[in-house]
Amino acid sequence: MTDAPETGGEAAESARDLVLITGMSGAGRTEALHTFEDLGYFCIDNLPPALIGRLVELTVLPGSRVRKIAVACDVRGGTFFDDLVGELVKLEQGGHPFRILFLTAEDRTLVRRFKETRRRHPLADECPIGEGIAAERDLLEAIRERADHTIDTTDLRPQELRTIIRESFVASGHEDQLAVTVSSFGFKHGVPIDADVVMDVRFLPNPHYIDRLRPKTGLDRPVRSFVLEKPETETFLARWFALLEFLLPNYLSEGKTHLNIALGCTGGVHRSVALAEKTGTFIRDLGYPVSVSHRDIDKDKGRP
Q1: Of 287, 216, 195, whose CA–CA distance to 245 is shortest?
Q2: What is the pTM assigned to this prediction?
Q3: How far apart are CA 104 and CA 200, in angstroms?
Q4: Residues 6 or more apart whose Cβ sits within 8 Å of residue 297
C-alpha cells in the first residue's frame, strides 16, 4: 500500500463503510436496501461479487465523496455468486473493512411470500419452491457463517426490520460503539435463531394463571407490576444486570458491533415482554443504543 498524507488516503479509508446485504431470497433484502438508502448509503442491487473490489477501489480515488456503500449480492447472480467468498477474502487481505448483513426466514414463511407475490424463486426453475429454498440454504452456508449481523425476518413486519437495521447500523458504523437488540419470545414458538444471548425466564411466577392478567401483556402496568415486584424477579434482575454490565464492554472489546439478546417465557406475552422492556431501559442507561421488540406478543389466539 502506498503512503498517503494524513488528510488523504487513510482518512478516506477509515471513513468508508461497506455493508454486504445477502441471505435467503424473500427474506427482505429489498426492504433492507431501501433502509440503507434512507440512511445515506450508496446502494447497488445484485452486484456480481467480482465487481465489489473494483467498486471499493473507485470510492478511495481522489475526489470521491462516497463513504457509505451497501451492496446486495445473492444467488440471482448465478455462477458469479460462487466467487463471493473469494472476493471477501481479497478485501480482507487488502485491508478493506466490511460488514455482512445476512437475512433469513423459516421455509414456510419464504414459500408463503413467494406464493403471495407470485415471484419465481431464482433456484426453482424446474422444481418446487421448497427444493429451491433448500438448495439456496446450502449455497449460503459459508456466507452465513461469516455474517456480522443475522436477522430472522419470519415474524417481522417491514417497519420492524427497518427499525432494527437503523438502530444497529447507525451505531455500529463506529468501531467504538455496540448496538444492542433486546427481544422477547415464547419458547412454544421456537427460540430466535439470530439471538446471541438467550435468557429463559420461565422460572418466574406466571401471570397467565391470574384471570385478570391473562388477557393483558407485559406492556400493561398490572402485568409489569406482577412480574417485576416479585422477590424472585428482583433477585434475578440484580444478577442479570450485573452480568450484562460485565458482558457488554467485553463483547465490544472483542470487536462485536451488534448484540442480540432474547428473553423467553412460555408464550412470549407476559414475563419476557416485561423483562425485555426493563432490560432495554437498563442497557440504554448504560449508554448503548438499544432496539426492543416483542416477537410473539400477538400470537396467543386465546387473548382478545
Answers
A1: 287
A2: 0.56
A3: 23
A4: 184, 217, 218, 219, 268, 269, 273
Q: How far apart are CA 218 and CA 247, in angstroms?
A: 26
Task: Report the relative pairing of strands 179-186 and 290-294 from DSSP bridges.
Answer: parallel
Q: Which CATH architecture has domain 9-172?
A: 3-Layer(aba) Sandwich (3.40)
Grid coordinates standing for 177?
Answer: 460503539
Task: Enumerate the domain spans of the chain.
Answer: 9-172, 179-294
pLDDT, one tens digit per residue, over 5-56 is 333 343 334 336 889 999 998 899 889 998 888 777 889 888 888 888 888 8
Q: What is the pLDDT of residues 170-208, one digit of tens each?
A: 654 444 567 889 999 999 999 998 899 999 999 999 999
179's CB contacts (< 8 A; 6+ apart) are 167, 168, 169, 170, 171, 172, 257, 258, 259, 288, 289, 290, 291
